[in-house]
Write a structure and sequence with these properties.
Blueprint: H1 19-31, E1 40-46, E2 64-67, E3 72-77, E4 81-83, H2 88-96, E5 100-104, E6 113-118, E7 131-135, E8 138-143, E9 146-154, H3 159-178, E10 190-195, H4 198-213, E11 219-229, H5 236-246, E12 251-257, E13 260-266, E14 269-274, E15 277-288, H6 295-302, H7 304-322, E16 325-329, E17 335-339, E18 342-353, H8 359-366, E19 374-375, H9 377-387, E20 398-403, E21 408-412, E22 416-420, E23 423-432, H10 438-456
Parallel strand pairs: 1-5
Antiparallel strand pairs: 1-9, 2-3, 2-12, 3-8, 4-7, 6-7, 6-20, 8-9, 10-11, 11-19, 11-23, 12-13, 13-22, 14-15, 14-21, 15-18, 16-18, 17-18, 20-21, 22-23
The structure holds the ligand C=C(O[C@@H]1C=C(C(=O)O)C=C[C@H]1O)C(=O)O.
Domain Chorismate-utilising enzyme C-terminal: 200-448
Enzyme class: isomerase
Catalytic activity: chorismate = isochorismate
Length: 459
């Protein structure tokens, strides 16, 4: 544990060195390297001494991604390059336009990474930018046993300037890692606003089922959000810690945008790529899981309404991804994915990409899936607009990372909150099909909101 002491003396671990010592050591290693030349330059250093310290430290506007079940953590610090395109297509253009040179100083084989995120499309009630691509100044990456620091900087400037910027960032980052965690006083956030009101949400579910019965569309995903207030500022890094512990199979992500922090524990993979292997999750159909009632999940698997809702998503993803793939594997029947108090129907879809196809191309085709929008998409968007629904803070958009070689993953932003001081705005929704009932749909959103509400008690 870090010992409280003066700046520069803070210890990274009981037996380890000081934060200042680590930073000085890394700076010496960087000084010996000949930096590559390009518009964007990166260097990766192995840092086994940080392997036990890949928790998100307290910082302003944190960007991070963790998949604890895969032993993956990416913690960013600062910004070397950022682009704010108008949409997902713009994200792909921004990424492919990067002139990015890299020096793998310890021959660990790892590529430098960029983070990216975007909203659902259309107005964002929190005015989050439609899309962002960011190459951080530093990324601490842990993958299994390996731990590395990736440093990036805009090229075309004197190497001494780059080294100075990295040196300063390394010092600050090491200090943040060594800072002792703040006392864990539990908070009880209370609801201060519900948008729409519970009664209006039920009414929207009814209106949606009527539009479906009238033959306008097959499915539409409605959502609601709640604003909660705590008695003191909420801390994203503590919320992340709680989510990592409770939902290790999810993608736990943060994106700091102008002092507000989006935090999510998403069970839904929009797309993941490794080489030409690609995968996406169809996730739709939800029920409470009750350990005392093992048959409940069985009912989810055999229930006609949820199976129908799920099948629509499987077919749509198979078609969207299939167009980019040489081979596609779609399991014949869904499985159950358990997430604490609820569970989903889940079909992991995998394939082999055609040459030239990649993660961002797949992401642009897959977003928004009928798991968060509806079918057909244009009619679903029209119904959402008629019902007056808006989404906020990238909820039901996507967030993830991509490395220089094109490997990476994006998750659908679900089970999320935007933290702003002592307040947090939580969003959740659910798919409405012909057989949906207002009360059950409302209860489903409450279950989904429960994941963040529970985490926030420890924020
Ligand atoms: C829309 C959300 O979740 C999506 C909708 C689901 C459903 O309708 O059953 C299940 C998982 C997600 O794909 C949400 O969590 O807000």
């Amino acid at each position: 544990m870090a010992m409280p002491s003066q700046r520069g003396e803070a210890r990274l671990s009981a037996g380890g060195g000081t934060a200042a010592g680590l930073a000085a050591n890394l700076v010496r290693r960087i000084d010996r390297l000949a930096l590559p030349e390009a518009a964007l330059v990166s260097v990766t250093l192995a840092v086994p001494e940080l392997a036990g310290l890949t928790r998100l430290p307290a910082m302003a506007d944190p960007w991070s991604w963790q998949r604890p079940s895969e032993g993956l953590a990416l913690i960013a610090w600062g910004c070397a390059h950022s682009v704010a395109p108008a949409d997902t297509a713009g994200l792909a253009a921004a990424y492919h336009g990067l002139d990015w040179a890299h020096l793998d100083a310890d021959a660990g084989g790892a590529e430098p990474v960029a983070f990216l995120g975007h909203g659902f499309g259309g107005p964002d009630a929190l005015d989050f930018p439609p899309a962002l691509l960011r190459v951080p100044l530093l990324v601490l990456r842990r993958r299994g046993e390996r731990c590395e620091l990736i440093l990036s900087h805009r090229g075309g400037v004197a190497p001494a300037r780059i080294r100075a910027a990295w040196g300063e960032a390394l010092e600050d980052f090491a200090q943040a890692l060594a800072a002792p965690p703040l006392a864990a006083v539990p908070v009880l956030p209370r609801r201060v606003e519900e948008i729409p009101s519970p009664a209006l949400y039920r009414q929207r579910v009814r209106a949606a089922t009527q539009a479906i019965a009238a033959g306008r569309l097959e499915k539409v995903v409605l959502s609601r959000r709640i604003l909660v207030e705590a008695s003191r500022p909420l801390r994203p890094e503590r919320l992340v810690e709680a989510l990592v512990e409770r939902h290790p199979s999810c993608a736990i992500l943060t994106a700091g945008v102008d002092g507000r922090t989006l935090v999510a524990a998403s069970p839904e993979r929009l797309v993941a790529c490794q080489g030409r292997d690609v995968g996406s999750y169809a996730l739709a159909g939800t029920a409470p899981s009750d350990p005392a009632d093992p048959f409940l999940g069985g009912r989810l698997l055999s229930g006609a309404k949820d199976r129908h809702e799920h099948r629509l998503v499987v077919e749509w993803i198979s078609e969207a991804l299939g167009g980019l793939c040489e081979t596609l594997d779609v399991p014949a029947a869904p499985r159950r994915m358990g997430l604490g108090r609820l569970e989903h129907l889940w079909t992991p879809i995998t394939g082999r990409l055609k040459p030239g196809a990649g993660l961002l191309q797949a992401a642009a085709r897959l977003h928004p899936t009928p798991a968060v929008a509806g079918l057909p998409l244009a009619e679903a968007r029209a119904v959402l607009a008629e019902l007056g629904e808006t989404r906020a803070g990238w909820y039901s958009g996507a967030f993830g990372w991509i490395d220089r070689a094109g490997d990476g993953e994006m998750a659908v932003v679900l089970r999320c909150a935007v933290l702003d001081g002592d307040r947090a705005l939580l969003s959740a929704g659910g798919g409405i099909v012909a057989a949906s009932e207002p009360e059950a749909e409302f209860a489903e959103t409450e279950l989904k909101l429960g994941i963040m509400l529970e985490g926030l008690r420890r924020a």
